[in-house]
Amino acid sequence: MTSRDGHSPEAARVGSSDDPVIPRVGTRLEGQALGIDVGGTGVKAAVVDLPTGELASDRIREKTPQPATPEAVIETIGSVIGKLRAAGSLPEGLPAGCGLPGVVKYGRLKTAANIDPGWLDVSAEELMKDRLGFGVLALNDADAAGLAEMTYGAGSGQAGTVLVLTVGTGIGSALFVDGVLVPNTELGHLEMGGKDAETRVSGAARERRHVSWKRWIREFNGYLARVEAYLWPDLIILGGGVSKEWAKFEKLLETRAPTVPAKLLNSAGIAGAALAGAYAQQVGGSQAPASRSSKAAGSKAAASKAAGSRSGRSKAVTATIGKAAKAKKPAASTRRRRPVSATKG
Ligand code: BGC
Is omega for the bond preceding 67 within 30 degrees of 0, making it cis? Predict the structure, then answer.
């Protein structure tokens, strides 16, 4: 079998998935995990309480270095984590996950629209393990944010086809079908008027083009209509930077499906990355995170201490893993009704 992906023999494997190991929505984990979110403008991290999705530490943010090469970004991640550690907020041995702005296959970025192309095909997971001293699951940033919204936020309990869009520096998408993620959808790159949609209607594009909210929402409605024509979602959740400005465009939004703002805002990407990282460690996915390596921890004793605390940290509570909790169907009477903040259309 010939793979179009000449650089990656893994891509030619038959009957296996190269996607990151992502839990089904409803999989419950206990304990804490470290979530890292690398965006086009900021690198953010925090410790996350897995049962609630709440942040258990301060959210530390630094600017994304430019150019955002793997080395520079991972150094920034190291600096952000160093601040958490210095504040005494980062327990040893936590599982970790990191959202990256591109398609992630077998721990590597396969696209790099909003990050330096130096990331392409480099093993992000190996590099992070090497430089940071512990294993980190890599996944798409919008998939991470979507997972958190579905688990802890606006999509909690929603069955059917749910589309989460993160509209900020770029446009990211996460598609869920009855609680299962279809990974690496890249709906920000749909064509619009001969251009890549995110270069016209992302939050950053709106600012760059000096377009008013009124004009932006007109164009964005066109984008949403196209997405709906292909996917027919039952619910759309709008996240990312523009969702903070929801009040400025809510009344002008036009969609067939109910559209609601994301609930977790700044912390969605962090919480979802943490959850996926903890899950990958549990199921021993190929990209399973680990504690600090003995090299970075400085001694074997430190490493085994880390491993010990790790095993106690992110246990599945009610063994929903594998079986996976079924997403709740809303009661029939409420299923068709639009949420209070639903839009016209
Ligand atoms: C990337 C997506 C990413 C989105 C938001 C897009 O340019 O292609 O993978 O999710 O930006 O960061």
Answer: yes
Amino acid (1-letter code) at residue 99: G
* Statement: 17-143+267-311 belongs to CATH 3.30.230.80: no
For the stretch 14-39, pLDDT in tens is 546 789 999 999 998 999 999 999 99
pLDDT in tens, 94-137: 999 999 999 999 999 999 999 999 999 999 999 999 999 999 99
Q: Which two tokens stand for residue 119?
A: 């990331």
Q: How is residue 4 annotated by DSSP? A: S
CA of 222 relative to ligand 1 center, distance in Å: 19
Which CATH number describes the domain made up of 157-264+329-335? 3.30.420.40
Residue with CA at minimum distance from ligand 1 atom 6: 170
Cβ-based neighbours of 6, under 8 Å, separated by 6 or more? none
Same fold flag, 17-143+267-311 and 157-264+329-335: yes
Residue nearest to atom 1 of ligand 1 (CA): 102
The pTM score is 0.83
Q: How far is the CA of 18 from the centre of ligand 1 (A)?
A: 19
Q: What is the DSSP string of 291-343?
A: SB-HHHHSSHHHHHHHHHHHHTTS-BSS--TTT-PPPPPPPHHHHSSPPTT--
Residues contacting residue 51 through CB under 8 Å, at least 6 positions apart: 28, 29, 30, 317
The residues near 282 (Cβ < 8 Å, ≥ 6 apart) are 29, 314, 315, 316, 321
CB neighbours of residue 218 within 10 Å: 15
Name all residues whose Cβ lies below 6 A of ligand 1.
101-103, 111, 113-114, 140-142, 166, 170, 172, 186, 188, 198
Whether the CB-CB separation of 134 and 287 falls below 8 Å is answered with no
